[in-house]
Amino acid sequence: MPTCQNCHNKWSWKQTFKGSFTLGGGMTCPYCKEKQYLTARMRKRSTLIPFVIVAIIMLGNLFLGPSYVSIFALLVLLPSVFIINPFFVELSNEEEPLF
Ligand SMILES: [Zn+2]
């Protein structure tokens, strides 16, 4: 779980999960009310994940043919990404440039 870089309080899964939907503008720390931003490393990763999932599904379609398997994979993989994501979130006090 991420730690606020300003007050060093640990965020809960629920707080991080809610915060991860407010893209761009950063997330407000529930403890000190300071704005926290995802690190550039984290943001790069979160833009990459949907592509990886789509690639896996496309490959599945290619080898197995279009089937319920790919729909099932999509329904299972996407929510699990959202559930797992808060565990890997890293916070920073400032908005880091991507490049
Ligand atoms: Zn804080």
Describe the structure.
The protein has three helices and three strands. The mean pLDDT is 85. The chain has helices spanning 13-19, 40-64, 68-88, and strands spanning 27-28, 35-38, 91-92. A three-stranded antiparallel β-sheet has the order 1-2-3. It is mostly helical. It has one domain (13-92). The chain is elongated. The structure holds zinc ion. Zinc ion is lined by residues 4, 6-7, 9, 29, 31-32, 34.
Summarize the structure.
The chain is mainly alpha-helical and 99 residues long.
Structural class: mainly alpha
Gap between N and C termini, in Å? Answer: 25 Å
Q: How many independent structural domains?
A: 1
Q: Can you write the helix and strand succession as a string?
A: HEEHHE
The parts where pLDDT drops under 50 for at least 5 residues are none
Whole-number average pLDDT?
A: 85
Percent of residues in helices: 40-55%
Q: What's the total count of β strands?
A: 3
Notable characteristics:
99 residues, mainly alpha, three-stranded antiparallel β-sheet, 3 helices, binds zinc ion
